[in-house]
Amino acid sequence: MTQISETLLHLFARRWSIPILAELKRSDGSKFVTLSRRLGASPVAVRQSLDHLIALGLAQPNPGYGHPLRPEYILTTSGESLGPSSVSLDNAITRFELRESALLRWSMPALFIIGRSAPARFSDIGAALGPVTDRALAQTLKKLQADSVVKRRIEDTFPPSPRYTVDRRGRPLLEPLIELASA
Which is nearest to 49 in space by CA: 81, 82, 20? Predict the structure, then answer.
């Protein structure tokens, strides 16, 4: 069974991390208020996600900030390496209108595991994700199924065994996830 990278788990620990990385990459840095407005996220959520990205060493306050036209936050060298994949993933999430389900904490890490080891069993997905609870994983998989990102089929064994595979709307999300995980 595929183990998930720590990078992927850390990136999705905060809902707005990927959209913030993508926006900072697209605009070569941004002001806090601009980030909050463009993402449609609360200032508290943006602050927490920015602090998280700063702690991960992916974003930083702009050392040259002070002029009204200079961005307040920019990507670090490590953040720049994740920038293109973040933009690709954010574009796909937006294009398929998956922001509500894709930005849940366990959605993209679960999709990554399913995509790398399909068909995947529930217990294998949970084991690969580590600290996820069965309830959180079940809710995540149901939401991904409802959005046609993941397919569930029951194998005719004793006892019956559900297996998960990537559905049509989930395929465009896999490549950027793989790039993020390998960075």
Answer: 20
End-to-end CA distance of the chain: 20
Q: Give the model confidence (pLDDT) of 136-152 as tens digits.
A: 999 999 999 999 999 99
Is residue 119 located within the same domain as residue 74?
Answer: no
pTM of the predicted protein model: 0.91
Report the domain count for the chain: 2
